[in-house]
Amino acid sequence: MHFAPLLLIVACELLLLLIEQYTPLPGWLHFGVSVSLAAVLLCFVALFKQREATMVDGLRREIGEMQQEAAKSARRYKSLLEGAGNAIFIFKVDTAELEEENRLGRELFGFTKDELSTMVVRDLLDPSEHERLRTFLYQLVRNGKADWDEVQLKRKDGSSFLGEINARLIDLGDEQVAHCLLRDITDKRRTEREIWQRNRELSILNNMLTSMNLGKDLKTVQEGTLRQLMELLQAEGGTLHLFTPDTSSPTLCASQHASPELEQVLGETLNSPDGLRDVCVVPLGSAGAGWGSLTSIPVSSQERLLGVIHLIHRVPHSYTLEEMRFLETVGKQMGNLIEQVRLFTELTWKSEELLRSHRLLEKSSHSLSVSETKLKQNLALVERAHLEQVRLDRMKNQFLGMVSHEFNTPLTSIISGVDHLLQQGWNSQEDACRVLEMVRDGGLRLKALVADLLKLIRLEARREGLETSAIHLRMLLENLLDQLQPLFEERGQVVTLRDLDHLPFFQGDCGYLERVFYELLLNAIRFSPEGGEIVVNGRVVQQEDLHQRAHTLTRFNPDFLRRCGERCYLEVEVRDCGIGIPLQEQQGIFEIFYEVGEIRHHSSGRRQGKGAGLGLAIVKGMVEAHGGMVWVESSEGSSFFLVLPLEQEAIQPALF
Question: Residue of 21, 262, 349, 630 with fewest CB within 10 Å of its CB?
């Protein structure tokens, strides 16, 4: 391609020379052809230079991009290597020379990067592991991977630690390298050993308890515990001596691999056991020929020494603080078991004695049992008669109390006032005013009672229609609370309104509902103790919520759930902290002239006694006039519930 223009010019010149041999050509033609060919040659050269420059630029860009990718890959590799959570080493498989490591690897061994670059894998191992290295490398080459658990490694300062190696073979074509993950498992293995020992200790303590529960005798438990202690603490011998009140010297209860002479010497050392209150380790003298140390473990219960466990080692032995505590626990647990066996034996003997005494008592008390049966029958008859008399007296007292308190008091005020005016002859204006006030109060009370009776008659006859308007429960209750505030202050009671702000407006007769909540609050004031709390809360309920309480609602209004439809209702609860209402009387309190309980149990302050039995009947009539219903739930205190429809039904329901 580079010589194509030049070859074209040479070919043209040769062609012209060949033509001139046969036909003479003018000089200008030869010159023109030469100039044209030279121009073509220059164009080809310029195009070639431009193309060559374009190719060079493209190659430079590709080389730059490849260099950037190579640098990025190198950084990524370095980041992965240094950011790994374990020590990483890379070495040549054939020579075991270290090629690369991360920061954790250098910190683990304490060498610098330059120092590690001149080392081989063997330099990082404890000399005892050099032979195992060959096996490890052989498995790595053969399987492509190898794991080495519990290998002893050596740091720069000469200290050794236990490690774990996971290696993978990487084939780079011209050489093979190994990628190794190395972890220090010294703490892990130490923790595992400690956990194993703690589990073994717990197993010994558990076996002591379960063996007794499984019915094994005490001697078997003692021998098994001594044998397990020897296995756990690597003792070569052991004994158990107990103090008994029947003998002056301690009794040998269990022995393992101890000579009779040593058993006798150990028993004699317990003749003065005052110093044996804690676990102690002492060297053995001539009596313990062939033994290195003796461990004494006191067996005690409730600070009382019952015996001693001896563990014997052939070489001097030391214990950790945790092992000493464990031995103390074993001694106390063994003492508790011995004490429990003693108490159980004593209890068994006393139970047998008690059983014999009981049999004698049964024989002598047969006649007394017959008399006792007759006495119980007579007492039951007397109790039933007494309860019937109490019930009749209560009914009589309730009736007389209602009549005398609710009707006799206003009439007495009127009659006394009139008699006073007749006797005094209006001599004192002040007395006349006071008497007239008494007459007025009594007359007003009688008028109110009559008005309530008339109201009930109209409600039963449904002669009055509802004058409905938009009502919000909180606004309605706040107006009533202002009217009743003197009563709350007089009795030190508190009214709490809960969850009322989010309730919607509803259509209702404001006058009726004011009377409803007035009666419920007045009822709560009467039946709550002084200083008590009255709570009013409300919520919107669906048809499903009402049907979930069908058992309760049906008791008070059997037809309500049938005609409630799918409307939403506003449920209001007025809860007091009074003495409550018995279940058998809850339905009757909404009837006319019905009252529950003793007069003296329900009031304090100046408003003593009960009402005339009209208030809750009026509440029921007015609520049902709105298409709702009212009921009561009572345990400690009473909760009066009423539901009012948020959507009015077309047909007015039956009131009673």
Answer: 21
The answer to whether 140 and 178 have CB atoms below 8 angstroms apart is: yes
**How far is the CA of 71 from the CAs of 54, 77, 79, 89, 260, in angstroms?**
26, 10, 12, 22, 82
Task: Give the residue, 232 or 110, on which the prediction is more confident.
Answer: 110
Identify the residue whose tokens are 């044996």: 276
Closest listed residue to residue 239, CA positions, set 213, 203, 264? 264
Strand 280-283 versus strand 304-313 pairing type = unpaired
Closest CA to 337 of 231, 178, 216: 216
Length of the chain equals: 656
- The span from the CA of 543 to the CA of 562, in Å, is 11
CATH number of 366-462: 1.10.287.130
Q: Mean pLDDT check: name the lowest of 238-252, 393-407, 542-556, 629-643.
A: 393-407
CA distance 294 to 313: 7
Class of the CATH-defined domain 465-645: alpha beta
Fold of 84-184: Beta-Lactamase (3.30.450)
State the pTM of this model.
Answer: 0.38
Longest C-alpha distance within the chain, in Å?
Answer: 183
Token readout for 427 is 């001599």
Q: Are 61 and 67 a contacting pair, CB within 8 Å?
A: no
Residue type, 228: Q
Q: Which two tokens stand for residue 498?
A: 């809960």
**Higher pLDDT pick, 266 / 533:** 533
Q: What are phi and psi of 256, to 5 degrees?
A: -135, 115
